Amino acid sequence: MSIGQQIYFAIELFAPELAHRERFCRRMTRVLTDFGSAPLVARQIATVLADALPSQCADYHLEMAHLITFHPPLSALLDTDQQAARAMHFYMTYFLDITALPSGQEMRYAVN
């Protein structure tokens, strides 16, 4: 499974309840460290993401894309770890590719 797919499925685990949030953090940390990120930075990234994702959301993947591009605390962490930044790039590529796939009679796109 590609790093983009692994991050995608980690986000699928996210829910605002504490038990689910912790499971998401463990999974995201493991995915990033397996890709070569420093363990401490990987855990910090996972925590920043879990804290920043809203409690009620229609699409956590769209929120994740927004955080990757516009969330200063996450950007600061990604600036310190090249592997984590590459992993997020691969996630964004994977996410945008699957959202552009045909859905029924019309095409779906994640970005207007």
Characterization of this structure:
This protein is mainly alpha-helical. Helices cover 71% and strands 4% of the residues. It contains six helices and two strands. It has helices at 3-12, 18-34, 39-52, 60-70, 72-80, 82-99; strands at residues 102-103, 106-107. A two-stranded antiparallel sheet has the order 1-2. The radius of gyration is 14 Å and the shape is globular. The mean pLDDT is 89.
Task: Show the helix and strand layout.
Elements: H1 3-12, H2 18-34, H3 39-52, H4 60-70, H5 72-80, H6 82-99, E1 102-103, E2 106-107
Antiparallel strand pairs: 1-2
Helix pairs in contact: 1-2, 1-6, 2-3, 3-5
Mean pLDDT: 89
Poorly predicted regions are none
Q: What is the alpha-carbon Rg in Å?
A: 14 Å
Bulk shape: globular
Number of helices: 6
Percent of residues in helices comes to over 70%
How far from one another are the termini?
28 Å
Tell me the β content: under 5%
Element order, helices and strands? HHHHHHEE
The side-by-side strand order for the widest beta sheet comes to 1-2
Oligomer: single chain
